[in-house]
């Protein structure tokens, strides 16, 4: 599970073309439809692969969210998050928050039905078959968590949420009583598991971050072997607040529509108004910045730009004594 799961919700408009990708179930359905013609083989339980990047909701993530709303039209879903130093699969674009409330009878019934459908054994004897065919890595719902990589442990208490001090409504988002959280494997998030295309997906570890930056760039293709493990990059002693902030967000991909503290730090380094939104002025300034350094002509902040900004703001060694 991610170091910090951000349970706050965010609205996401889903294009009709994305909704059309979902398998539509009747409004009165008790669970999403299970496709016909599924292969006898099935995905292995999703192993835990933590978040490393910042991206919009992936195709498979959007399809799953649309499927849940098509099954239960009174509900909604969200996925996008502004990227912060507290990482979450939402940041990778591979997590869905499906809005249903355990404090109401119908809301709890919906969440319980989805969980039961995901975890039921199919006719071939495959345990938690629908979760595997969708690439569900873990579920958090109504104070508890279930993980494909710890399936033998069943449902476990999440984040101390059954404690009396967390019983109030103030903890309903943190304890996932007002929504079901679904984190997906990279195969599930990309939408090429057997639930969608009848082809069993292999392991995919997703993008890897470089040793000198704290975030990976965007997903570019399947990776069958684990990423190298590097310690988190930290700023050198004597660094400015700006440099420390840039180090924390280093490598995070910034493009049109990106917002949040990473954008604000880059704007400060560029000495333009720090709105926290990668707006037209920011993009124009970045094009000039990259053009002057022969880094291309677009306004995307990628690894080369991050390295340049880090070098530009790093503490200077003391001058030698004459």
What does this structure look like?
The longest helix is centred in the middle third of the chain and has 15 residues. The chain folds into two domains: 182 residues, no CATH class; 105 residues, Muramoyl-pentapeptide Carboxypeptidase, domain 1, CATH 1.10.101. It is built from eleven helices and six strands. The protein has a six-stranded antiparallel β-sheet. The protein is 29% helix and 8% strand.
| Integer-rounded radius of gyration | 22 Å
Give the beta-strand count: 6
**Number of helices, counting only DSSP H or I runs of 4 residues or more:** 11
Hey, roughly how much beta strand do the residues contain?
5-15%
């Amino acid at each position: 599970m991610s170091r910090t799961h951000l349970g706050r919700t965010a609205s996401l408009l889903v294009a009709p073309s994305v909704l059309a990708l979902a398998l539509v179930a009747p409004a009165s359905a008790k669970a999403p439809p299970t496709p016909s013609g599924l292969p006898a083989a099935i995905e292995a339980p999703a192993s835990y692969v933590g978040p490393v990047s910042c991206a919009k909701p992936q195709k498979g993530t959007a399809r799953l969210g649309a499927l849940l709303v098509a099954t239960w039209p009174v509900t909604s879903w969200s996925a996008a998050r502004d990227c912060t130093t507290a990482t979450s699969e939402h940041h990778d674009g591979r997590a869905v928050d499906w809005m249903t409330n355990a404090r109401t009878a119908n809301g709890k019934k919906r969440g319980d039905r989805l969980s039961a459908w995901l975890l039921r054994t199919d006719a071939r004897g495959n345990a938690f078959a629908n979760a595997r065919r969708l690439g569900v890595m873990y579920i958090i719902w109504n104070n508890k968590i279930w993980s494909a990589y710890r399936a033998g442990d069943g449902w476990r208490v999440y984040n101390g949420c059954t404690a009396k001090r967390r019983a109030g409504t103030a903890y309903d988002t943190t304890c996932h009583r007002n929504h079901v959280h679904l984190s997906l494997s990279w195969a599930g998030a990309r939408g090429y598991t057997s639930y969608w295309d009848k082809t069993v997906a292999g392991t995919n570890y997703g993008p890897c971050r470089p040793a000198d930056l704290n975030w990976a760039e965007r997903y570019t293709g399947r990776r069958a072997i684990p990423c190298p493990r590097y310690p988190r990059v930290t700023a050198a002693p004597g660094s400015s607040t700006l440099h420390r902030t840039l180090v924390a967000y280093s490598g995070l991909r910034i493009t049109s529509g990106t917002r949040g503290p990473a954008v604000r730090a880059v704007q400060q380094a560029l000495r333009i108004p720090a709105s926290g939104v990668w707006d037209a002025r920011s993009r124009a300034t970045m094009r000039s910045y990259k053009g002057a350094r022969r880094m291309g002509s677009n306004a995307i902040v990628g690894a080369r730009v991050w390295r340049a900004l880090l070098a530009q703001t790093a503490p200077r060694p003391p001058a030698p004594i004459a």
